[in-house]
């Protein structure tokens, strides 16, 4: 039986979001409060299983008394705070951030990106045809997953998942600086020469599809990837006694991708190479 | 941590460079040769946390390799990682963060030619081209265009660094093609730099407080420093006690001189009262704002004053370890400070029992490696700790969680040296200087179109015009840049602006780090703005989107309108305003937040594209 630790009861604190009072447990972020209040604040680099990095700045909100806008994902709620999520100022920064990203990065597989670009009236083309882009080619150096850094928004989630927050493998880092910064293994070598253990926990947290299963990458390239035709079945990994939960994504009776529920109190969406990629035997139909 | 190291091996020289810093490896787990059987090689749980706690030696280790070899190879990086139990991917991320390091082979000698604002106005472009054609291909010298080298009073400037044991450096400023080439090809026989006092036109004036000893004392002599009232302030501090020192500093009205103008006494008090231990003191000597060189002049001309001031600050906040983070492009300041710290330690002015008062404090000097962003206070912490120099989210603030996650006071060099006169003359006398809200003296770095460029000390409240007259401003003044690249331009008809924090704020500009850069009408303004934009694009750490991509879009737009005016530029100016507003509002740190300031002021105040 899994016991979910409840911890000591937390005090509720009260503050204001868009003119309405909200009450959240102490330690909550502004984003937690906004979501509890039903506000749709966009996020990209925020991860439900990771500590906030507040790198993308698409979740900025206005807090009265603060000189600059405040990232909702990382700022802890304080009693008496007065937060505005939808002011012209906040919307302006969100729109520019979306324009800056969409004009330099391929957001075609980022969930909700197109919807937000429309909602905020972003025009990524306004920087002209010569605007610098990442211009990266997909890196296909192993049979399990592909790193398509043309889609990378540098959210640091894969680095954090690979590092001390989950996997403790430390195979990847951000290398370089500024616009030239990229996710890389040491000496920017192929993955096969690195410390990577192919757990795929970086794919699990990637918000843009820059990291994807080779199966998904190939099917997208062939134009046959069809999420609406997929079923998701959550089951238990049969490899060892830990009993991690797997969610099998199946299209045309073939497993095309494996994820893991983030709310699992033991694994928090993390798997090992066997659970993540070791499913081929299931579909050997001889 | 189950670390994976590649198969690349270090050369003997690379190994020697790392071992010179860390000592020989104790076992083959740390990379020692497996040529003999050692009991240390038997597998048992050792190292662990103790080894990982040496992560802060990563940056010194990278310096050691780069200084000896000139670049950092796979094998050298792998060996350093083994010695420090650092994941190679992370170390690679750190090595590629800094402009002074290279992870690709390059010649042992690199000649950094400053192309920043003051040097650009003094012909840096022609200088760089001339040097390249004189050296020709295969010269064994790599020429690099560099951001501000902090030698603006002697523009144009060049800095040669030749890797070896020991590493050699030579400065050529004001540089000619012949002098810069000589510095690069024969750094040992290049002429010695002029004394720091030449950067202080007021040198010898007895009314000076901060620059009083520059050019008067021998910067290598502790005795000479003591003969000129040195260590009187520390004795007074011991007499007052830590709380008394904080009270004096608070009463003096001293505020930070790095640009943010935060009250120093409040910062010290907030740190001193934290129950979490240890407390740290950090001196921010990563002076990289284009046009700024005051801290260099103090460190080169009066290094013991900084050491005394750091000791006083540490005593006040209860810190026993202090870090002095010096920018990597200041070789002479490094030599002077290293010597001064060693002397002070040998004579009991640093160490376990300072002046027999039972107070223990010591200073470690850490070198930056070419990253403007590391002057941001939390980025500096990450840099010292051996991580990429990316700013942290605030809160928590450094007074609560700073260096190594502990309560930390971080002050700029100029802020700290103000503490010495505060204690010797007393808070009331100090507070009587300047204006009511900006107290004491202020250092200004005047360069550009003036007859006597250099560091000037004036009490707060002097006007911009008075300062420029003192420096001998030349005819045909077109614009004055206040506060450096992160500051703003003012017009020649605004010279009545009082040089105080409140005065510049009221005038809609900023004092910043004290840069006063004068440009005459021969300097094409759009080119200047483009250089500022290039600077921010190069120096953005890349962590947040508004700054990482915004600085690129800003530069692109300024490129498009470099030769346009009026309606032809209007569309791009509107674009710049929108991107600039988002950078100011939504960037993580001051770099992105100020990256559009100078451009905006040039458009609005100077009418740059009209």
Protein architecture, described:
The complex is a heterodimer of chains A (286) and B (610). Chain A folds into 2 domains: 12-86, Roll (Ubiquitin-like (UB roll)); 145-282, ADC-like domains (N-terminal domain of TfIIb, Single Sheet). Chain A is 19% helix and 18% strand. Chain A has helices at 30-36, 88-102, 113-119, 157-162, 201-205, 214-222, 273-277; strands at 12-17, 20-25, 60-63, 70-71, 82-84, 145-147, 173-175, 182-184, 211-213, 231-236, 245-251, 254-259. In chain A, the strands form 4 sheets. Chain A has a 5-stranded mixed beta sheet, with helices on both faces. In chain A, β11 and β12 (254-259) form a beta hairpin. The relative contact order of chain A is 0.11. Chain B folds into 5 domains: 12-95, no CATH class; 109-194, 3-Layer(aba) Sandwich (Glutaredoxin), CATH 3.40.30; 222-430, Rossmann fold, CATH 3.40.50.11540; 433-520, Ubiquitin-like (UB roll); 525-606, Up-down Bundle (de novo design (two linked rop proteins)). With 610 residues, chain B is an alpha/beta fold. Helices cover 41% and strands 14% of the residues of chain B. Chain B contains 24 helices and 14 strands. Chain B has helices spanning 12-22, 48-52, 58-69, 74-84, 88-95, 117-121, 124-135, 177-185, 222-227, 232-252, 264-272, 294-301, 303-317, 331-346, 377-385, 413-425, 427-431, 464-470, 501-506, 525-539, 545-560, 567-586, 590-594, 597-604, and strands at residues 109-114, 141-146, 158-162, 168-172, 279-285, 319-326, 351-354, 359-367, 408-412, 441-448, 454-459, 477-482, 488-490, 515-520. In chain B, α3 runs antiparallel to α4 and α10 packs across α16. The longest helix of chain B is centred in the middle third of the chain and has 21 residues, at 232-252. Chains A and B meet through α2 and β7 of A and α4, α5, α20, α21 and α22 of B.
